[in-house]
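task queued by scheduler; priority normal; single chain, no ligands, no partner chains; default sampling; output format set to structure tokens
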Amino acid sequence: MSKQKKILVELSGGLDSSVAAILLQNQGYEVVGCMMHLHDSPNFDNDLRVAKSVAKQLKIEFQVVDYREKFQQEVISYFIDTYKEAKTPNPCIVCNQRMKFGIVFELAKKLNCDHIATGHYARIVCEANKFELHKAKDLTKDQSYVLHFLDQEKLSKIIFPLGEYTKDEVRELAREANLPCVDKEESMDLCFAEGKTYYEYILENSDYKPEPGNVIDTKGNILGEHEGLINYTIGQRKGLGIAGGDPLYVLSLDKTKNEVILGTKDETFVDEVHVSDFTWISGKAPAENFKCQAKLRYRQVPKDCLAKVDGNSVILEYPEGIDSVTPGQFAVLYVGDRVLGGGIIN
């Protein structure tokens, strides 16, 4: 590297971001560490202690930035409001979009950093002066789905050091460096609601009051009563409180009538998925109609479909149908390992 470039690494107190900082330092970057204070979760103090320890070990500048007010406005409010609309939010994507790959660029500019980096598992590829987002080498850890909103400008300023590594390789690097977080377990909970269910969190942190209503089948027959639409999501089978007969699944939530509609497994399938507020990573759709694969939720294997583009919206057609399509979640389109973009399921 002819000129040492300055890079802002978002440290979380976890294994992945810590190893990302080590890899970049080894590549000759001048690494600056930052940790976002987004919420007052029980684990924040411990995460901060670990992040400070890593920064001290690497002898890098480190600072904590208080973004709690912004996080409340941009992420928590979105999370609560989406449930109020009887939809299912994805706060991790919105946090990435507005915080970790949003407001952080203001901090990077202030610190005169050329790039930002995180411990996400994804790859950025530059072809013919165009930036592409690709799946990570370790498909079991791939996080490209939650990064589908990144545009050309942002991709040009982001580095994902872990994209070519497996999780086992990253853990071994941490062990070799004697990092304090080498054996730290990954959190699978909603970060800002640690120790609470999302239902408990919303009741404690909003004016939302669940209203009981009817649980019905597709013919309008009343099967029982629910205690609030917030307790249900599309495709849900367990915890419905309906005994006997064939297994039933949540098909839809009617906010206007305050009803939960149940049906059989076959009835969970639809032929089309409508997606709005679409973002194309390249800046435009590849064609008006084209074949691709789509993920409609984080853990789903991408499935073949036909995409039909209409302005800022996309209709996905599935010849064999797709089940449990959930309004509020994100549809992300792929061609092989490359992410085309994504939007919100209506």
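post-processing summary
- The helical segments are 15-26, 44-58, 68-84, 91-110, 152-155, 167-176, 198-205.
- The chain has seven helices and 17 strands.
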